[in-house]
From TrEMBL:
Annotated function: Hydrolyzes acetyl esters in homogalacturonan regions of pectin. In type I primary cell wall, galacturonic acid residues of pectin can be acetylated at the O-2 and O-3 positions. Decreasing the degree of acetylation of pectin gels in vitro alters their physical properties.
Family: Belongs to the pectinacetylesterase family.
Enzyme Commission number, as recorded: 3.1.1.-
Keyword Cell cycle in annotation: no
InterPro entries: PAE/NOTUM
Name the record gives this protein: Pectin acetylesterase
Species assigned in the record: Solanum pennellii (Tomato)
Top EC class for this record: hydrolase
Length: 397
């Protein structure tokens, strides 16, 4: 499978996870209706196909009525006209093809037993339909096909729609996201803070969004090349962190979280697996680097990996921890949870966020660690031991 089609297909497994959360029956799931942003046209904020952007809002209550959690949806990217045209005809490029009701679970749950710290906040899921982690600002038209690369405007339109609905006087707020949405959190964290009251407590959380600038097993910069195409096509570079782009010789590298992170001023939490399966399959071992498919069995089942393959995977973990070393050692306001599970995205799924059998590091769940960090209750930097030591993992490979 070509890296240029990095999109919904790879995320089929994750689409179904929320439906597996609750064995007690459908009545226990929280389903939240879609809101189309009608004023988006005034900003020229359109999905790839020209449809209106959208979000799902579930109102807070009680002590959380003035607190807000915004969650970017994930779903890969597109970096050329063909893959973006294909995407524009799917639920990752058009609100016309999206489910109008979304399951809210994990960090989006309204049940204190499942989401003890954020259950009564206003919770928003921002739908993803631009293909560049909400960061592009361009348009393509060749007389036949029309594509809008307007992720930056979509972000702005949704924020402006939410401000008069209560976000504008938030007392506490957190911007979060999963996968490509987790990357969007790095890109928009400080901008989110700029919209909110000066006395608000604002923080950001990225789940499975720490995509590494890493050579693949053939020593090619496959992901760097992919992002270069995306940035050029979708007009992303002007929307990257200006302090970062003015510092690096190659400004487009600021799309990678490891280069943007030192310039983010808002408190930040990084939730990631050291063996993130998406990065394993598409950054470390993309199909282009394994034409004879020696890694197929290992990709499908980590217990089938041979010693050499396991050593390469351990090297990837070391590279991720090295990229995070300064963040871990020198930051006092930030948090992290780097576990050793072969998985991707853990905050929106109940059984990995907060449940009896959830993954744990030093006996702490992800939800407990994030809550301790946000509310400054405890030190919240956890790094797991290397695979296969963690017996609490939910491997989704």
């Amino acid at each position: 499978m070509n890296v240029n089609s990095i999109s919904g297909l790879k995320f089929v497994l994750f689409i179904f996870w929320p439906w597996l959360v609750n064995s007690k029956g459908e009545q226990n799931r929280l389903l939240v209706n879609m809101t189309l942003v009608q004023n988006a046209t005034a900003l020229g904020a359109y999905c790839l196909d020209g449809s209106l952007p959208a979000y799902h809002l579930h109102r807070g209550f009680g002590a959380g009525v003035d607190n807000w959690l915004l969650q970017f949806e994930g779903g890969g990217w597109c970096n050329d006209i063909k893959s973006c045209l294909d995407r524009s005809k799917s639920n990752h490029g058009s609100t016309r093809y999206m489910n109008k009701w979304e399951v809210f679970s994990g960090i989006l749950s309204n049940n204190a037993s499942f989401n003890p710290d954020f259950y009564n906040w206003n919770r928003v899921k921002i739908r993803y339909c631009d293909g560049a982690s909400f960061s592009g600002d361009a348009k393509f038209y060749n007389g036949t096909s029309l594509l809008y690369f307007r992720g930056q405007r979509i972000w702005q339109a949704i924020i402006l729609d939410l401000l008069p609905k209560g976000l504008g006087h938030a007392k506490k707020a957190m911007l979060s996201g999963c996968s490509a949405g987790g990357l969007a959190t790095f890109l928009h964290c400080d901008n989110f803070t700029s919209y909110l009251p000066k006395n608000a407590s604002v923080k950001c959380l990225s789940d499975a969004g720490f995509f590494l600038d890493e050579r693949d097993i053939a020593l090619n910069h496959t992901m760097r090349s992919f992002y270069e195409g995306l940035i050029t096509l979708q007009g992303v570079e002007p929307n990257l962190n200006q302090n970062c782009t003015s510092t690096l010789y190659y400004p487009h590298l600021c799309f990678f979280p490891q280069y943007a992170l030192p310039f983010i001023e808002t408190p930040f939490f990084i939730l990631n697996s050291a063996y993130d399966v998406y990065q394993f399959h598409h950054i470390l071992v993309p199909p282009s680097s394994d034409p004879r498919r020696h890694w197929d069995h290992c990709k499908l089942n980590v217990t089938a990996c041979d010693t050499s393959q396991l050593n390469i995977l351990q090297g990837f973990r070391i590279d991720m921890l090295t990229a995070l070393r300064d963040f871990y050692q020198n930051s006092t306001r930030d948090g992290m949870y780097i576990n050793s599970c072969f998985t991707h995205c853990q905050s929106e799924t109940q059984d990995t966020w907060f449940a009896a059998g959830s993954p744990r590091i030093h006996n702490k769940t992800i939800a407990e660690t994030v809550g301790d960090w946000y509310f400054s209750r405890n030190i919240s930097k956890e790094i797991d031991c290397a695979y296969p030591c963690d017996t609490t993992c939910h491997h989704m490979i």
